[in-house]
């Protein structure tokens, strides 16, 4: 079973696909006009729980989990501002509810294809 991710910027929705069929969808926040999310095909190159968070410290702007993309500086991550989900608000990254990014992170591996479409 080969998983992949498709992100629709206009729908502000991330879809997890298994062998080309949608198995889950999640709402996301994406880049604002001045800092648009790039379109194209990328891969997940790294995964890190609690990026930049010290034990007992507050969540960073990256929330509870980070999955870096092959486009340097961009990733799929949680957020410390859950109200931003579903909006054009980021500096180009894909923001998810923390519970959703944790769920997704368990379902995809490093090397998973990520297609971002307008």
The topology string of helices and strands comes to EEEEEEEEHE
Poorly predicted ranges: none
Strand order of the largest sheet: 1-2-3-8-6-5-4-9
Question: What's the overall average pLDDT, rounded?
Answer: 91
Number of helices: 1
According to DSSP, the number of beta strands is 9
User: What about the largest sheet?
Assistant: 8 strands, mixed, barrel
Q: What is the approximate shape?
A: globular
CATH architecture: Beta Barrel
- Helical proportion? under 10%
The CATH H-level superfamily is L,D-transpeptidase catalytic domain-like
* CATH third-level topology: L,D-transpeptidase catalytic domain-like
What this model shows, in words?
The chain has one domain: L,D-transpeptidase catalytic domain-like (Beta Barrel). The chain has 118 residues and is mainly beta. The mean pLDDT is 91. The relative contact order is 0.30.
Q: Topology, pairings included?
A:
Elements: E1 3-8, E2 13-18, E3 21-31, E4 40-49, E5 65-69, E6 75-77, E7 88-90, E8 94-96, H1 98-107, E9 113-117
Parallel strand pairs: 1-9, 3-7, 6-8
Antiparallel strand pairs: 1-2, 2-3, 3-8, 4-5, 4-9, 5-6
Provide keyphrases for this structure.
1 helix; mainly beta; L,D-transpeptidase catalytic domain-like; 118 residues
């Amino acid at each position: 079973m080969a998983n992949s991710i498709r992100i629709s910027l206009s729908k502000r929705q991330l879809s997890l696909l298994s062998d080309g069929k949608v198995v889950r969808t999640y709402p996301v926040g994406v880049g604002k006009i001045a800092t648009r999310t790039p379109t194209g095909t990328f891969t997940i190159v790294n995964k890190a729980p609690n990026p930049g968070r010290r034990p007992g410290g507050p969540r960073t702007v990256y929330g509870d989990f980070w999955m870096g993309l092959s486009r340097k500086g961009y990733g799929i991550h949680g957020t410390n501002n859950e109200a931003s989900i579903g909006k054009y608000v980021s500096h180009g990254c894909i923001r998810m509810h923390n519970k959703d990014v944790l769920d997704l992170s368990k379902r995809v591996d490093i090397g998973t294809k990520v297609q971002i479409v307008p």
